[in-house]
Prior knowledge:
Aldehyde Oxidoreductase, domain 3; three-stranded antiparallel β-sheet; 18% helix; alpha+beta
Amino acid sequence: MSDYAIVGKRMPRVDTPAKVTGEAKYTADLKFPRMLVGKVLRSPLAHAKILSIDASRALALPGVKAVVTGQDTFGEKWGVFRYTQDQCFLPMDKVRYFGEEVAAVAAVDEDTALEALELIRVDYEELPAVFDPLEAMSPGAPLIHENFPQNINIHVNINVGNVEEGFAASHLVREDTFTAAEESYFQGEPYAVVARFDLEGNLEIWMPNAGPHMKAKPLSNALRIPLHKVHVRKIA
C-alpha cells in the first residue's frame, strides 16, 4: 500500500488558532466601500397564490436602491441535483412553505432595509396546505408543484447486496417504519452573503456553502452572466 503524505495522517488545522482566538474573518465581517444591506421579505403562509406584490412605497423610501421579486428572476430554478431543480430564487406564482422568500430589498443601511420590508404589500389567496409527508403523497392532496402528481418528483431505489439472502440468514428480522428529522450541514459562522462586482466585471460572492459550483450555475442563469465570471467563495 502506498505511503500517502496526507491520507490517513493526523494533520494540524492551520485555521484553528485564528478561530479559537476570535481573529478569524467570516462573511459578515467583510466590508466594502458603498456596501448596501439586503433583507428578505418572507411568506406568513404555508401555501398561497401570489395575486400581486406592490413595492412602490418601499422603492419611494429614501435610501432604498432596489426591490427584487420573482418577476425579476426570469423564472430560473435551482436545486442541489439536476432532478431536484424545482426551487425558485423567488416565487412568481405562489408560495409553497411558511417563511419562503417573497421579495428582497437593497438599501443603504439595515434600518432602512427593514423599514422597506414593512412597506411592501403582498396580496395572497391562501390555499390548502399539508404538513405530513405521507398525507402529502396521498391521492387528492394539495399539490406543491402542479407538474408532480402526488407531490413525488422522483423515485429512488437503493439496493445493496443480496437483500433476500440477508433476511433469510438473519437471526432476527424486524419490520417497522422509521422517521428522522431533516438534517442540514453546519457552518461555523452566522449565515450571511456578501457580493460585489470587481473591476473586471466578475461577480464575487462570499457565503457559507458546501458546493460553490451549485450556487454559481443558477446565479449565472438568473443574472445572465457567463458562468466563468461568477466566483463563489467559501469562508467558514
